[in-house]
Amino acid sequence: QVQLVESGGGLVQPGGSLRLSCAASGSIFSISDMGWYRQAPGKQRELVATITSDGSTNYADSVKGRFTISRDNAKNTVNLQMNSLKPEDTAVYYCNAEVSSVWSQDWYREVWGQGTLVTVSS
User: Fold this and answer.
1) pLDDT tens digits, residue range 40-68?
2) E-strand spans in the chain?
């Protein structure tokens, strides 16, 4: 089994910063796209940022200029640096990756983390 584990969530004041990390583990052969999604209370899950295997990034308009997504292919990790946090950033943040395993190296499947809670409040 391949799994993703998020870390770094917590309580932060408006204007503060937080860094989320997501580590993929298991019988991984390769990882294609990776991304972060979030789901705020009473809202649907939305895309926050994505990053391809070659480093191309995309951001939701609501976080552009404040958040930075990065990855370390050697460590099978993806990170989300969140600056200038706002109360509306409060959500459960989920890591997502397209992963192939050593047992089926040409088949990519979506894997989701269990989420980490980010609360932005004074």
Assistant:
1) 989 999 999 999 999 999 999 999 999 99
2) 3-7, 10-12, 18-25, 28-39, 46-51, 57-59, 67-72, 77-82, 91-101, 104-112, 116-120
